[in-house]
Design a protein that fits this description.
alpha+beta, Immunoglobulin-like, Neutral Protease, domain 2, 4 domains, six-stranded mixed β-sheet, six-stranded antiparallel β-sheet, 32% helix, globular, binds zinc ion
């Protein structure tokens, strides 16, 4: 992030003095009032001690089959009685406290002569090393890594994926120092893929501009397939692990198109700016899986091994577009709390709907603009975000802004009642993005759109002001581009019902709502488990909910008929009449209980779009732009 990069030079001064950033700013201002010569002398004194402290890292994977890596962090000339080493509890971009320190073991410390130093654990994720006045301290530990996901680390005989925020500790108050990372892979492994750049000719010795960049640079080690391409003026590397049916000859061409399309929205690629000189895609292809996590100049993607053909390719490219869009939105253009991270605690913001939801809106839009998605499919995806929001019982309870704030305790910790009490800031945020885009286009008769907001905010808050934005600033920026107040914000920060017709009319679209009133449904999600039918969730306001069914109930019989499977039970209910009463025999904690349930339709509303036959030229223009035509 730029706020980090711009501060590198004087950050040496800050940390050599062991005072906080705010304190330095205060002192700096006071000094400004003094004479120029005194100021110059002061700066001279500061800079002589600027390079005093040194930090270096080493990670080794000598026995990958044990799932351990070995880390050493060496600090020189700290001039401290003790040094605290802290491991993050979470991975930026994935808003859940994951307690990475649970994988740490065998912590030790030695001085320059190898003499053991006292290590004291002072919090769940901080170790205090007593220096005994030594000028050189090495803190070492092992990390157990056996969870393959985009935000956790995994090591086995075939490869090592190091999700750096869960692997590397930082010496407290030295986070801004530059350092080096020496990687010692298993002797049979020849490849390394990461956003970090080598110091010299040895690709396993990496330059680390500061800890934020280290924590934001995952590392793939092994014998992965590496493909390269250049797009938007940047060298891109794609590391595939796990095999799969991707076509090496064409996949990079497709990815390059997505990269160019994404960069064209912002007009420049931050990977051309120091200290970055390339971008890395680390792609894991397990037999099943999906998802991605954004980083400063890299990303980790997970795609199913055989998911690169047909619609699978479109989905993969949409994932590429999502994570690449994050290069601007979130990694640089960001809500205030998401930068200068507190690595030990939750970092709260009500704006994940913009950071994540609008990114989700753009992932399909970019894929469509790049020519990989049909107009009808694209429109279907947008309709789905609207009908999902409308049909989710949780959208009447939790606003999209609240869903963002509570991501840490709700979205990332779902339970059986989540659908009744929460909305997704991803899908509902994408829906809000689609309506925001329409409202801006409507306000400007198609002259401006959300692209203009993204470009403006990137220039204003990242490049010019070099900081995150507030809720007020985000709304102000959108309204500045629109030239008038926008109504969509009240729907984002409250549960006020949305008048979709108002927004869709800007594009000459009529909304048709279709509600099935004839097919009864219990409103339960049933699952077959060991020959039993188990209730997994019960939607609020449905026949099953009002009739008393609970999660974990086993459905044995309906109206005296033994139910052999979940699908049979669902179709039995669908074959009855609305208003009819049925008897459902349930086993609840091994007690047999009969329930009389009056059947009702589930009440879900399907959305359909229709074009206005007498649409104006402006409405036609907006329709074209909104459905993926370029501005
Ligand atoms: Zn995302």
């Amino acid at each position: 992030m730029l706020q980090v990069l711009n501060h590198i030079e004087y950050s040496f001064i800050i940390y050599s003095l062991n005072i906080s950033h705010c304190t330095l700013a205060l002192k700096f201002n006071k000094r400004m009032k003094k004479t120029l010569s005194a100021f110059a002398i002061t700066l001279g004194l500061l800079s002589t001690s600027a390079f005093a402290q040194k930090v270096s890292y080493e990670v080794a994977v000598p026995e990958p089959h044990t799932h351990y890596c070995e880390i050493k962090v060496t600090v020189e000339d700290a001039k401290k009685k003790h040094i605290d080493f802290t491991l993050p509890t979470w991975a930026p971009g994935s808003y859940l406290i994951r307690e990475f320190s649970k994988g740490v073991e065998q912590e030790n410390a030695v001085d320059a002569t190898g003499k053991p130093l006292k290590v004291e654990k002072v919090t769940k994720n901080t170790w205090r090393v007593h220096t005994d006045n030594s000028n050189k301290v090495t803190f070492s530990y092992k990390v157990y890594a056996f969870e393959l996901s985009v935000r956790t680390s995994f090591i086995d005989a075939s490869h090592a994926f190091l999700s750096s925020s869960g692997i590397f500790v930082f010496p407290v108050e030295m986070e801004k120092l530059p350092s080096t990372l020496t990687v010692k892979p298993h002797s049979s492994w020849k490849q390394i893929s990461t956003g970090l750049s080598p110091v010299g000719n040895d690709k396993f010795v990496l330059a680390v501009p500061n800890y934020d960049i280290l924590a934001d640079s995952p590392i793939e080690l092994g014998n992965q397939d590496i493909l390269t391409f250049t797009a938007a003026g940047v060298r891109h590397e794609v590391a595939f692990w796990g095999g799969g049916n991707y076509d090496p000859a064409s996949i990079t061409k497709h990815m390059a198109k997505i990269v160019e399309e994404t960069a064209s929205i912002f007009g420049e690629n931050p990977n051309t700016q120091k200290p970055f000189d390339h971008y890395t895609f680390i792609v894991h292809n397990p037999s099943r899986g999906g998802g991605g996590l954004e980083h400063l100049n890299s990303t980790v993607l997970q795609n199913s091994r055989w998911g690169y053909g047909g619609s699978g390719l479109t989905n993969f490219l949409s994932l590429v577009a999502h994570e690449y869009f994050h290069l601007w939105n979130v990694k640089r253009l960001r809500p205030k709390p998401l930068g200068g991270f507190d690595y030990s605690n939750e970092n709260y913001t009500r704006m994940l709907w913009f950071a994540e939801g609008v990114t989700s809106y753009y992932d399909n839009l970019i894929t469509r603009r790049a020519g990989y998605m049909e107009e009808s499919k694209y429109i279907d995806e947008i309709i789905n975000t609207m009908s999902n929001h409308e049909n989710a019982a949780g959208s009447k309870v939790q606003s999209i802004g609240e869903a963002s704030f509570d991501a840490w305790i709700k979205f990332y910790r779902p339970n059986e009642n989540s659908k009744n009490s929460t909305v997704s800031y991803y899908t509902s945020g994408a829906m809000a993005g689609a309506l925001l885009d329409l409202e801006i286009m409507g306000a400007t008769e198609g002259k401006k759109c959300l692209d203009d907001v993204m470009r403006y905010m990137y220039q204003e808050y990242y490049k010019k002001l070099d900081r995150g934005y507030s809720e007020e600033e985000l709304q102000k920026a959108c309204e500045l581009i629109a030239g008038k107040p926008l109504t969509i914000f009240k729907h984002i920060y409250s549960t006020t019902p949305i008048n979709y017709e108002y927004y869709l009319n800007f594009a000459g679209i009529k909304l048709q709502k279709v509600t099935d009133t004839r097919t009864p449904n219990l409103g339960t999600n049933l699952s077959d488990e060991d020959g039993r039918i188990i209730v997994k969730s019960v939607a609020k306001g449905t026949a099953g909910y009002d009739g008393g069914l609970n999660v974990n109930d086993e459905i044995i019989a309906i109206d005296g008929n033994r139910m052999p499977s979940a699908s049979f039970a669902n179709s039995y209910v669908a074959g009855q009449d609305v208003g009819q009463e049925i008897e459902v025999l349930v086993s609840r904690d091994n007690l047999i209980i009969p329930f009389k349930i009056k059947l009702a339709p589930e009440g879900k509303t399907g959305f359909r779009f229709a074009r206005n036959s007498d649409a104006t030229a402006t409405q036609e223009l907006i329709f074209k732009q909104w459905t993926g035509g370029k501005k």
